[in-house]
Amino acid sequence: MSSLAGVKVMVIDDSNTIRRSAEIFLGQAGCEVILAEDGFDALAKIADHHPDLIFVDVMMPRLDGYQTCSLIKKNPRFKATPVIMLSSKDGLFDRARGRMVGSDEYLTKPFTKDSLLAAVGAHVQPN
């Protein structure tokens, strides 16, 4: 799994539990993890950190995952950054909506360490 070493991954989720577990799983794989509590928090941090990949929770207060993804993808500097939606709902509509705002993948919560790392591996080319 060392191919993920040094990959910068941002996790945007209003749940402390989800953020912590994602941070542990990704950290164990050697990723550098940036955490954000919501879309506004994330947008400020993206500019500073330039993550290689972003996980974003669909259901968040203030700015939801779809809006956050859309704003990231509309920014020319981050348009190419893979965005993976995280949701406890696994509906066709939710997946379609995720694709409409430009998300690259849709992961259902609760995720496993393997599914999280597989998603990162699928979208990030090791340096």
Shape: globular
- Succession of helices and strands: EHEHEHEHEH
Query: Spans of 5+ residues with little confidence (pLDDT < 50)?
Result: none
- In CATH terms, what is the fold-level topology? Rossmann fold
CATH-defined superfamily: Response regulator
Radius of gyration: 13 Å
In the sheet with the most strands, the strands line up as 2-1-3-4-5
Gap between N and C termini: 14 Å
Largest sheet: 5 strands, parallel
Q: In CATH, what is the class? A: Alpha Beta
How many individual β-strands?
5
The amount of helix comes to 40-55%
Q: Structural class of the secondary elements? A: alpha/beta
The whole-number mean of residue pLDDT values reads 94
How much of the sequence lies in strands comes to: 15-25%
Helix count equals 5
- Number of folding domains? 1
Tell me which CATH architecture applies here: 3-Layer(aba) Sandwich
